[in-house]
Amino acid sequence: xxxxxxxxxxxxxxxxxxxxxxxxxxxxxxxxxxxxxxxxxxxxxxxxxxxxxxxxxxxxxxxxxxxxxxxxxxxxxxxxxxxxxxxxxxxxxxxxxxxxxxxxxxxxxxxxxxxxxxxxxxxxxxxxxxxxxxxxxxxxxxxxxxxxxxxxxxxxxxxxxxxxxxxxxxxxxxxxxxxxxxxxxxxxxxxxxxxxxxxxxxxxxxxxxxxxxxxxxxxxxxxxxxxxxxxxxxxxxxxxxxxxxxxxxxxxxxxxxxxxxxxxxxxxxxxxxxxxxxxxxxxxxxxxxxxxxxxxxxxxxxxxxxxxxxxxxxxxxxxxxxxxxxxxxxxxxxxxxxxxxxxxxxxxxxxxxxxxxxxxxxxxxxxxxxxxxxxxxxxxxxxxxxxxxxxxxxxxxxxxxxxxxxxxxxxxxxxxxxxxxxxxxxxxxxxxxxxxxxxxxxxxxxxxxxxxxxxxxxxxxxxxxxxxxxxxxxxxxxxxxxxxxxxxxxxxxxxxxxxxxxxxxxxxxxxx
Length: 512
Fold this sequence. Notes:
- InterPro entries: Glypican.
- Belongs to the glypican family.
- There is one protein chain.
- This protein is 61% helix and 1% strand.
- By secondary structure, the chain is an all-alpha fold.
- Helix 7 (221-254) runs antiparallel to helix 11 (303-320) and helix 11 runs antiparallel to helix 17.
- It is rod-shaped, with a radius of gyration of 35 Å.
- The model is unreliable at 1-31, 190-198 and 368-423 (pLDDT under 50).
């Protein structure tokens, strides 16, 4: 409706300008002895220099596209201008039709990333608070490993192809092990001031990092953390990657390269009638469909894999909209704190065995000076008996948020969400996107017909067949596939845009 209103206003302006500039000519029908109407349309559409349009129809002009036995208001230079104009107009129409889809993909892509960022930042701070409240001796030195872990999680959620949750978790526990070993399992060893001792501790810490997986001080908890995050973050990561791919597909269709054969077909459809003075006559439906299908065959070939991509995006959004304990991203990220706490408790419970193994692999620690700062002076060696008899102690308390969440799994964690909508949750955002994207499943397949229906035609008794005024198009209307274009009477398309072929291959790989 909006495009139709603009078209009517534009047409009204053309008619009024026609009467103002050329009152003797009129605009209701073609004047066989004048090219005034053609000149007005040429000027209003900004095709090129209006001086190129002759005052009266002529013969003998070497036309290549709009060939006509009788007098013509077109020249070869006008045909060149028409060729450039149809390419520009086609790209403008493509951008106009894909604008809403592009806005939907880009807008929701940013909204998802902002929501992920909000959740990751919150859970990063929550994990740091575990060390502040229960393991004060580790608090200051653990901030960097925690920050690095959640930075890796953030990259993973953004769809970074080089990110690995397994590597991120392994690096985190590798960095955590020397701190736990020196501050909790063997708190009597401090940080000597002697340079030789500092060098020894550095080498010893490197050995601890390299042997963490073999010593297994944290038991099964690193593996459990990787499994939990992989399952829960998988849909979010896949959604980010596919949204990025969807944006690339839309961009590639906007920049489609129109072949010379396509340009000839568009000129024949849109402007060859002008050469006869018929500036208000619209192309026939069948003519428009054939020309558009020929020009956009590469886009139409993307239709099937694009449809599968939209279905995948819907399913991923639906998955993120659920609140099940098994696949909830929010609960999995909130539970990182509890996984880390359980891992440290496991190390404390098995402190003597871990120390014995480390001394065999990395050698014994050199005795240093006792730490004298307030926090470290409160540390005492933790034995198995101490842990088993202190279930209500501060070390066990961090697990309580996990128990609370398990008892209320249906509630979605309140997020800051995207800017301008502080109450937007991941569930609400996902549901909104799932509903919106389904409307575009057949967008690329139906684009040629949509361009014809809204831009090319109006209700009328006659139409332009590409060569003459007819009551209906007599040619055969072909399908949208590349194979079908062999029978296209309006264009001769044998190949598709290489860039679109590459996009199609990527789509098929990711959607099959």
